[in-house]
């Protein structure tokens, strides 16, 4: 890690970042005589990072003063288009080839130097490192310029290597540079770790742990302030990493699931269909623990369907009557039903493959349903419908309709494959909900026979994926950079929305109509609200100490 981090002034949060670390020089000399008092001017996209105060006076007002070993972060809006993005890539120490340096002051530049200069004419895809030796009684001596082409950098990749000066007028030597370009969240996580101390968020985490489960969730459960995708994922990472009695995945999920089930008490069919904290967190939870399961059970089916790229439309109203190609919807329906049955078998035959964490959340849901829908839950039918429906609605069906977002395909499916996947998910969701097709989609009624046939195997599958006798959850070890990033996102969310959260607590529509799902209908007293606010004071104190979150990186997934 470098000694000191300099940042651009007024950074654009949306821009990708080019992270440059000028480490040290080696064998920088002329005809065997070493230079001393060396510094560099690092330039990208018209911005100059100057390592000497005297030199700064003759340079752009955007200059920054650095010493050897210091770092600089350039906003790099243009580099994003020139750089290969490799999500979740590993650090690559050889991602940039040796560049041919150029010495602007030399009149004897050879063809190699000219080629390097020409290739660097666009500052959007090159980095210039001007190497100087300080002279107190004369103008600082310019040893030369290293031009680094940046179009070979990969997102998140790290290049750390020696870059040579061209041998012009007897000048030789190299400079060690560390370069990192990042546009993705993982790369930003790593950079954030370097910007803040290791225990930067420890006091904030401790204040979270001292809250009751309800009071912790209240901070994120406001229906008017539903966290975005990055904040939901950050909340999940914090919860699953924690092992306190009040802050762990089981306690938080149970509280949220209970409130979601109560909100759907009049109609179980609306369960998890609201844009609520519970629905979003459950989706994130399933995706986090179930990614490998999706790949094992669905990937072959999706890839085969995409490779075949067949026209399997079953809705006669979607057929172009003027098309030369005739479409047999009855034949297509038979093919689709056969493929769907194969997929159902692939899923239901191996219930033990469902990750325990998902069976655990299913167990929490089953308990809540059994308590709140006690009268309607004859033969456990409501529990089975709710658990199966939620798992397919929030987990399996989204992966089928957008397989490229779940790692099942490298890119979006073809138009024909996507339409077939949409038809398949219609059948699967109706099977999970225990509903047959009717007049609204009469072209799908041929699938009712399959739904009836698969009802018992599906019910057996659902029963097998509900964990019994839930035990206290054990926290998962979240990667440190991910945890820091998650806390940064939560810090940003709370800093921005704290006044709104407090106002919503203090002024509900009435004692039963709060904008917090977990409080709505609980007839909470003013005394209890005061106690909640009192507990939240410890969190507010830590937020005040942390102050405004740094803005060098953006806390939203791109």
N- to C-terminal distance: 27 Å
Q: Can you tell me the CATH class of the largest domain?
A: Mainly Alpha
SSE order, one letter for each helix or strand: EEEEEHEHHEEEEHHHHHHHHHHHHH
Round the mean pLDDT to the nearest integer and report it.
77
Count of separate DSSP helical elements: 16
Total domain units: 3
Instruction: Just name the CATH architecture of the largest domain.
Output: Orthogonal Bundle
Task: Please sum up the structure shown.
The chain has 16 helices and ten strands. The chain is α+β, with helices and mostly antiparallel strands and 558 residues long. It folds into three domains: 5-183, C2 domain (Immunoglobulin-like); 199-248 and 482-558, no CATH class; 279-464, GTPase Activation - p120gap, domain 1 (GTPase Activation - p120GAP, domain 1), CATH 1.10.506.
């Amino acid at each position: 890690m470098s000694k000191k981090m300099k940042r651009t002034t007024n950074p654009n949060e949306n821009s990708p970042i080019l992270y440059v670390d000028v480490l040290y020089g080696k064998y920088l000399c002329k005809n065997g005589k070493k230079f001393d008092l060396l510094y560099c001017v690092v330039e990208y996209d018209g911005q100059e990072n100057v390592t000497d105060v005297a030199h700064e006076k003759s340079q752009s007002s955007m200059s920054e003063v650095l010493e050897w070993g210091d770092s600089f972060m350039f906003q790099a809006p243009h580099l994003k288009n020139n750089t290969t993005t490799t999500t979740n890539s590993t650090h690559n120490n050889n991602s940039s080839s040796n560049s041919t340096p150029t010495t602007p002051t030399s009149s004897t530049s050879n063809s190699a130097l000219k080629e390097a200069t020409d290739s660097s004419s666009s500052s959007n895809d090159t980095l210039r490192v001007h190497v100087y030796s300080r002279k107190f009684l004369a103008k600082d001596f310019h040893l030369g310029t290293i031009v680094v082409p940046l179009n070979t950098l990969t997102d998140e990749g790290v290049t750390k290597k020696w870059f040579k000066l061209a041998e012009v007028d007897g000048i030789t030597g190299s400079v060690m540079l560390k370069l990192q370009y990042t546009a993705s969240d993982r790369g930003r996580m790593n950079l954030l770790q370097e910007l803040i101390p290791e225990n930067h968020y420890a006091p904030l985490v401790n204040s979270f742990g001292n809250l009751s489960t309800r009071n912790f969730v209240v901070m994120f459960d406001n229906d008017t302030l539903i966290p975005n995708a990055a904040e939901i994922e950050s909340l999940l990472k914090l919860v699953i990493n924690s092992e306190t009695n009040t802050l762990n995945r089981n306690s938080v999920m149970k509280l949220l699931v209970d409130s979601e089930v109560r909100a759907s008490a009049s109609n179980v069919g609306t369960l998890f269909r609201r844009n609520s904290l519970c629905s979003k967190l459950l989706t994130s939870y399933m995706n986090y623990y179930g990614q490998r399961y999706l790949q094992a059970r669905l990937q072959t089916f999706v890839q085969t369907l995409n490779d075949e790229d067949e026209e399997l439309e079953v809705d006669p109203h979607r057929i172009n009557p003027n098309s030369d190609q005739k479409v047999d919807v009855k034949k297509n329906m038979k093919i689709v039903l056969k493929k769907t049955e194969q997929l159902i078998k692939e899923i239901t035959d191996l219930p033990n493959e469902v990750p325990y964490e998902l069976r655990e959340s299913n167990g929490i849901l089953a308990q809540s349903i059994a308590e709140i829908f006690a009268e309607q839950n004859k033969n456990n039918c409501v529990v089975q419908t709710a658990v199966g429906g939620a798992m397919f609605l929030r987990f399996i069906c989204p992966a089928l309709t957008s397989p490229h977002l779940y790692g099942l395909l490298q890119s979006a499916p073809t138009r024909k494959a996507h339409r077939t996947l949409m038809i398949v998910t219609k059948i699967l969701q109706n099977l999970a909900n225990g509903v047959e097709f009717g007049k609204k989609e009469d072209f799908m009624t041929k699938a009712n026979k399959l739904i009836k046939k698969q009802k018992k195997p599906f019910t057996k599958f659902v029963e097998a994926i509900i964990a019994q006798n839930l035990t206290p959850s054990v926290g998962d070890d979240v990667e440190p950079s991910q945890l820091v990033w998650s806390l940064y996102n939560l810090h940003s969310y709370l800093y921005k929305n704290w006044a709104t959260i407090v106002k919503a607590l203090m002024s509900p529509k009435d004692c039963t109509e709060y904008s917090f799902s977990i409080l709505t209908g609980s007839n909470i007293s003013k005394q209890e609200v005061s106690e909640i606010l009192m507990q939240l004071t410890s969190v507010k104190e830590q937020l005040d100490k942390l102050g405004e979150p740094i803005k060098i990186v953006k806390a939203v997934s791109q």
